[in-house]
Amino acid sequence: MNPPAFQRALDTLREILEGPGIRPELDLEDMPAPRNLAPYAAAMSGTVYRDDDTEAAMGRLIVLYDPDGRGGWTNGFRVVAYIRADLEPDIAADELIGSVAWSWLLEALEPAGYAGVSGTITRAVSESFGDKSDEPSATELELRASWSPTGDDLAAHVTAWCEVMCTTAGLPPTGVAALPDRPGGTGG
To answer: Quick one: angle between helices 154-168 and 97-109, nearest 10?
Structure first.
């Protein structure tokens, strides 16, 4: 039997997975949780798709719970997030993209309430050679972060992770529409 606090977390994750969906471009799925990080764990994965159904970003969110608590874990919980997104080469070349992506995470977590946030941002460029030399270079951003929720509402933390995943995929914030391409204009 799960401790009540972790059971509430599981119920919240299940409601999100079985609910109406956070955004139409985002597909969330249950996934096996790692077993050795904490006595109790749950995990989900997410994929962001472009209009043409190509994958623009993916991620994993793991909720860890230790009823005995751990140093730096508020309420016995720790959330671990991973996001990988394709980037346009000019954006990946910007020296500030790591700081900008980190600010997206902090801004998204602010309404949820968090403590002890830490993580890394990695930019990667993949170049092809030999028989693959005709393939274009690919640029990616990877965000790895963990934090402790300061309240009981894990739904807000899942929503924050989803928003950051969608932002790194180049989608506008929820409730904001992208400007359509216009004849003679530069588009949006």
So the answer is: 150
Q: Inform me whether the pLDDT recorded for 101 exceeds 60.
A: yes
Run of H or E including 155 = helix 154-168
Judged by DSSP in three states, 140 sits in strand
Convert the pLDDT of each residue in 9-30 to its tens digit.
999 999 999 988 888 999 999 9
Cβ proximity of 28 and 17 under 8 Å: yes
Confidence of residue 136 (pLDDT cuts 50, 70, 90): confident
How far apart, in Å, are the Cα atoms of 179 and each of 18, 30, 56, 176, 183? 31, 34, 19, 9, 12
Output phi, psi for 87, to 5 deg: -125, 150
The pair of structure tokens assigned to 99 is: 């700081």
| Structure-model confidence comparison of residues 186 and 170, the more confident one | 170
Q: What is the pTM of this model?
A: 0.85
User: Domain residues of the chain, as ranges?
Assistant: 4-169
Place of tokens 């506008």: 172
What is the secondary structure of 27-71 as a DSSP string? Answer: EEEEEPPPSSSSSEEEEEEEEEE-TTS-EEEEEEEEEEE-TT--T
Which one has a higher pLDDT value, 152 or 156?
A: 156
CA 48 vs. chain centroid, Å, equals 10
Count of other CB atoms within 10 angstroms of residue 59? 24
